[in-house]
Design goal:
By secondary structure, this protein is of the alpha+beta class. It is built from 28 helices and 9 strands. The strands form 3 sheets. It has a 5-stranded mixed β-sheet. The protein has a two-stranded antiparallel sheet with strand order 1-2. Strand 7 and strand 8 form a beta hairpin. Helix 10 crosses helix 15. The protein is globular. It starts with 37 loop residues before the first helix and ends in a 6-residue tail after the last helix. The structure holds zinc ion. The site of zinc ion has 4 residues, from helix 17.
């Protein structure tokens, strides 16, 4: 986090957040950025932007692409730069004092964006350029940027009358209170649950590490003895998978299902209000439903095509799921005399069956995945695919001493950008894994900028006894995030607003998810999966098993996700005011995704943060959508070679480099030679024959 400086020192007029610096590689001068710089820098950036925007609006010259659309982007550039560093550090390295700045930064930045989208003079100019676009001499990229800028204005309410604009602002203001409240309720309700026991028998089956953690948790909560469990994943997951005590598993599943459902932290009223406001906003903007509004900026062109896509997956997975479930029921009956398999039994028995079939667990493979080897494996895979090279730099200012920075160079020596890796847990970083940008690629105020990317993760760290050893799942996370970074690093766009990864929501996970495939290919594993002590390679048998586990219970796992996907569309693809009793409604719409008996007192919606508090409303399908795209794209690599130069060059040129210059469907077709097809995903899962 930026150092705090005594407020008594006079502040220098130079701002390291805004003014040019002589940092090597054009990096962010983290060594000079301090907490006190952010608000003054944002104020100055907004003041300067407003002056520039006023002069764009008042320009006596007739509107052109350059003096209107491009000028608009340039005017807001500095505001964007300050916010990128602020939000990046908020996730990567921040204390409470730093996080608290959001109280000031949030309102300032949202006021600035409505100032832009509600400015009638700016919109008139953009609209004029947009109307002329087809007949003007603009190139394709300029036309695309004009189209998207125009649409942004329209979807932000530029065409509404004053009353409409005012109502839109009220809705935005109300949502900005309700959505964080929804998340807060989920968090508080989750944290309000604690199960403490002194009965050692209840721990039967749990891994040693989970038992130790439970004992620490009990101490931390001031119990003299015993073990404590919470609903947070690190506590919950081992119980569901390993606890022999069926009563313990049941207790946890019931508590999890009741999160924010009734009681002090109830979300039912809030989520209804959120759905109603979404719907009203869509109607105001001329759309029948919230889903239709959201689909304006998606690769999927209609709710019908999403449903058709999901139905195709469902039909292929359903027979397999029936068979898998029958076998599992039979297994549980045979080994434990279970007569009706419940929700709290699935993870436990499927884990046992999986271990019997494959005879290994992920943990036992850690010695083959030392973090440093995984990183250098990743770099050499990217090198073989795209001819790029990563060189560690020691002259780049870092925001924390745990971070390392790499220069990324193209085959011809051209510097493509910087990549910062920040992979191990720290109290001052967020618990999630994500890839962020300090700066995107593209033209800004006449200067072509290279991108600065950073990957934040919380992988298993080294201990005094051994180096950082990862599970294959953690290596997958690393490859996934690296895929996002590559997308941005290989972007070749003129205008930064179009640069990767500024693409549609249901397309953005294609470049990331496709990278995970190389973790499952023996030819790629051969490059880096070596035992950290003996140097011995992962055996062919283990490599094959690792790949085969993709197919384990693929039917059940595929079907269970429909509960969320169908629920999401049910809330947002029609008028939510018609929804009467939430639990009955859920039961009705999640029928095909529910494989186990209902659990009274449970509700899915009240803790479904993705759709009510994050950006996944009418978009939960996009995970699976991107998976289908990625499996289909990767099948070309499988057919022609996972390191085939021609295929890699085509993926780079047609997908990674293109950003949002064209509709994602066009980009995909250029790479694949046809429209996407879900068959590759179904084949990979073993749900249709090879
Ligand atoms: Zn991702």
């Amino acid at each position: 986090m930026p150092r705090s400086r005594s407020p008594l020192l006079p502040s220098t007029p130079h701002s390291p957040l805004l003014d040019p610096t002589d940092t090597p590689h054009g990096a962010i001068p983290f060594d000079r950025i301090e907490l006190q710089h952010f608000i003054p820098a944002l104020d100055r950036a907004i003041t300067e932007a407003n002056e520039l925007l006023d002069s764009v609006a008042a320009n006596p010259e007739p509107p052109t692409f350059e003096n209107s659309v491009q000028a608009l982007g340039d005017a807001s550039d500095k505001v964007g730069r300050v916010l990128a560093v602020y939000f990046g550090l908020m996730g990567a390295e921040s204390n409470d004092e730093f996080k608290a700045l959001i109280q000031t930064i949030g309102p300032k930045s949202s006021e600035f964006s409505s100032r832009v989208s509600f400015d009638p003079d700016l919109f008139r100019r953009v609209d004029a350029v947009h109307k002329e676009a087809a007949s003007s001499s603009m190139n394709a990229e300029q036309r695309r940027l004009t189209e998207l800028t125009h649409r942004d204005f329209v979807l932000s309410g530029a065409l509404l009358d004053d009353a409409g604009k005012a109502r839109l602002q009220e809705i935005a203001a109300e949502l900005s209170q309700l959505q964080p409240k929804f998340s807060q309720n989920v968090l508080n309700s989750t944290n309000a649950f604690l199960y403490h026991t002194n009965d050692e028998d209840e721990l039967a089956g749990l891994p040693e590490a989970a038992i130790e953690a439970a004992a620490h948790r009990a101490k931390a909560r001031e119990y003299d003895s015993g073990w404590a469990f919470t609903l947070q994943d690190p506590s919950l997951t081992p119980i569901l998978q390993y606890a022999e005590s069926r009563a313990l598993r049941e207790k946890m599943v019931r508590a999890k299902g009741a999160i924010a459902f009734g009681g002090e932290y109830d979300n039912t009223r809030i989520l209804r209000r959120i759905a109603t406001l979404f719907h009203e906003r869509a109607n105001l903007l001329g759309f029948a439903t919230h889903a239709e509004l959201e689909l304006e900026e998606r690769m999927a062109d209609s709710v019908d095509s999403i449903r058709a896509f999901l139905d195709r997956i469902y039909e292929s997975a359903e027979p397999a799921s029936v068979k898998e479930l029958d076998d599992l029921i039979e297994y549980a009956r045979r080994v434990d005399g279970i007569d009706e398999l419940q929700r709290w039994d699935y993870a436990y028995y499927s884990r046992r069956v999986k271990e019997e079939i494959y005879d290994f667990n992920e943990d036992s493979l850690r010695p083959y995945f030392k973090a440093e080897s995984a990183i250098s494996g990743l770099f050499s895979i990217a090198g073989r695919l795209y001819g790029i090279e990563f060189r560690q730099l020691d002259d780049v200012p870092l925001y924390h001493s745990d971070v390392s920075a790499y220069g990324v160079f193209d085959e011809n020596g051209e510097e493509l950008g910087l990549l910062y890796l920040d992979l191990f847990p720290r109290e001052t970083k967020s618990g999630a894994a994500f890839t962020g940008r300090w700066r995107g690629q593209g033209l800004r105020n006449g200067e072509m900028q290279t991108p600065l990317l950073f990957i934040v993760a919380n992988l298993t760290p080294a201990t005094p006894e051994r180096p950082a050893l990862l599970t294959p799942g953690e290596v997958g996370i690393l490859f996934h995030e690296f895929g996002h970074a590559l997308h941005a690093l290989l972007s070749k766009c003129t205008y930064s607003a179009l640069a990767s990864p500024n693409v549609y929501w249901d397309f953005v996970e294609l470049p990331s998810q496709i990278m995970e495939n190389w973790v499952r290919e023996p030819e790629a594993l051969d490059l880096f999966a070596k035992h950290y002590e003996t140097g011995e390679s992962l055996s062919d048998e283990l490599a094959r098993k690792l790949k085969d586990t993709m197919k384990f219970h693929a039917g059940i796992r595929t079907i269970r996700r429909f509960a969320q996907e169908d629920l999401d569309l049910a809330w947002f693809a029609s008028d939510p005011r018609g929804i009467d009793e939430i639990v009955l409604f859920e039961k009705e719409v999640t029928r095909r995704g529910s494989l186990f008996p209902d659990v009274p007192g449970s509700c899915l919606s009240t803790s479904f943060e993705h759709i009510f508090a994050a950006n996944y409303s009418a978009g939960y399908y996009s995970y699976r959508w991107a998976e289908a795209l990625e499996a289909d794209a990767f099948s070309r690599f499988q057919d022609e070679g996972i390191f085939n130069q021609e295929v890699a060059a085509s993926f780079r040129d047609n997908i990674l480099a293109q950003g949002n210059k064209k509709e994602p469907m066009v980009l995909f077709e250029r790479f694949r030679g046809r429209k996407p097809d879900a068959d590759a995903l179904l084949r990979r899962l073993g749900l249709i024959a090879d």
